[in-house]
What we know:
With 788 residues, this protein is an alpha+beta fold.
Amino acid sequence: xxxxxxxxxxxxxxxxxxxxxxxxxxxxxxxxxxxxxxxxxxxxxxxxxxxxxxxxxxxxxxxxxxxxxxxxxxxxxxxxxxxxxxxxxxxxxxxxxxxxxxxxxxxxxxxxxxxxxxxxxxxxxxxxxxxxxxxxxxxxxxxxxxxxxxxxxxxxxxxxxxxxxxxxxxxxxxxxxxxxxxxxxxxxxxxxxxxxxxxxxxxxxxxxxxxxxxxxxxxxxxxxxxxxxxxxxxxxxxxxxxxxxxxxxxxxxxxxxxxxxxxxxxxxxxxxxxxxxxxxxxxxxxxxxxxxxxxxxxxxxxxxxxxxxxxxxxxxxxxxxxxxxxxxxxxxxxxxxxxxxxxxxxxxxxxxxxxxxxxxxxxxxxxxxxxxxxxxxxxxxxxxxxxxxxxxxxxxxxxxxxxxxxxxxxxxxxxxxxxxxxxxxxxxxxxxxxxxxxxxxxxxxxxxxxxxxxxxxxxxxxxxxxxxxxxxxxxxxxxxxxxxxxxxxxxxxxxxxxxxxxxxxxxxxxxxxxxxxxxxxxxxxxxxxxxxxxxxxxxxxxxxxxxxxxxxxxxxxxxxxxxxxxxxxxxxxxxxxxxxxxxxxxxxxxxxxxxxxxxxxxxxxxxxxxxxxxxxxxxxxxxxxxxxxxxxxxxxxxxxxxxxxxxxxxxxxxxxxxxxxxxxxxxxxxxxxxxxxxxxxxxxxxxxxxxxxxxxxxxxxxxxxxxxxxxxxxxxxxxxxxxxxxxxxxxxxxxxxxxxxxxxxxxxxxxxxxxxxxxxxxxxxxxxxxxxxxxxxxxxxxxxxxxx
Length: 788
């Protein structure tokens, strides 16, 4: 500590440089700790698994389960203590002044035992409440209980109006209960899931299934047991057993690890910078080391002393990093859920502090190792060749790490620019969207559903300032869509479950005009397309090319294979033959997916769906019309909530949220890396110049011009930088696969981007090396020759 206090400017520079790197690593690790490493807040959470299906022969992965499969697993397995099925559902709460729409789940009675959750008030569901006629009971979330009932502890046994029907409240769930990492909104209501395997289709994959392993059973054993179950008629379908936490973090895990690697690179660059500072400091301690050696100190003892000094420097940096990390964590907690999935705040807890301490010690030792070995060499004069080698290695290391970060950030920026200017197949400007959910209890027939949508569209379209209005089940450019198998007229009938899949939308008559989707051939739907005996369809251009190459699809017939199901998102279709009456331009599914997939459009009058969105084109800012649209809907049904009111541009922006956040984060880290690398190269070259002062004087005394001396120093630095850039580009190419899934409109190996990054960093390196080289060239040769 005494030696560090002797040179406060050196100590401050080193502590701040390492402290920034340590703070970034600690803050990012706090995210990993909460999302990836914290056990889920359920009893024996490691024993909870998700069961999902896949069909490799059809390229289908991570599929939900069918009702018959769920009952097969429940009956025949020997490895699970309990199984449960569940599904999402919207609920309309009525009976108050304003109807309220909430989200919740339909769950089997085993759902809460699987998670190890008990009710805070009352009870959870009983097995007999899964039976028809016994299922009008409900569980409330703590939030809904407080909001709707004022936290009244006597609420179990009371009633609540759901979808216009009376439900008995069985209990209230604990305040901290949440189905983690499934939705970015709270789930407020839970009702029993009534399942009937008789007549249910194995092609209807609509159930989430969780299970609790028996004590002592490993996931591998459970997987082997499920593999051994006899396969019924759904040939090709396999079961996957996945730890619940792994399933919930599968999507974000690679992104978080990528960010952790990025801040790790920043820390390594900071470490290289401090190494160059320590090398410069060590050059002034050669005489001190020589005296210590003369007094009997061994080289090991000298190395140990120097490493102890650098370790103290690392610990001081760790303390500074802790303070900076606290501020960064506060900023992280202020980010929206859509940017960083979290259900609890990030914090500087014991694991993060332990991580902080470990990297502080490691970076302190790593930064001091080369200077310690250099300084402990038993020579009174510095080893110029060794100094050059160390300097070159440091420049190459910093260049390689900075280029890898720049490459990742540059590719993501290029991708964002490409996505922003991408033609998505429709006009998303001035479009207001609102979601509606028609409860089957009050809208039990397809005719009732179709009549409501027709009235809603007519009333909204008649509003002043509304140019047109229509309806669609799932919004274009959103992250939600669904698919159906089809059978082509004249083609051999495929086996059940093996039909070619297309994405489908149920739309209103004016959908293509309102959404700005051009029709390439044929006609749009009209109000007359309401006869279920003469079904019609419109296909996308990509669907026409795939199924009828080289010929017109108009007049061709297809038959959808909708499963026999009461799932709310499925249209109430008769699966009759449909005649193709039009061809529409392809629309990118979520505004990002680059390759158009086959798309099928069905008229809602023939395929009524309980869940639909109103899409309204307005003359100006769409949000100005949201109150009028809400009033128009309530004039048809006063108990019908209107929710998720937003513009289509907002829908598109949500699709880009995670990629945009990652782009900004990596760009910030890359900018910091370039700054540190530039300062590091400057410091390394300055150190090299200080070590070769006598050589510079001799060259100038023998006639070398200042420009030649500066050029020599710059060339040596640029050779090292060029080697580092080459290594960095190779590393970027090797890691291209990691980023490719996040890129749109640009390849991970894009030569223009990587070339521009290489040129940019070499320019930074040239500027950083030129300043100390120019200063060296201006020194008086006599002064250089008197050096030492």
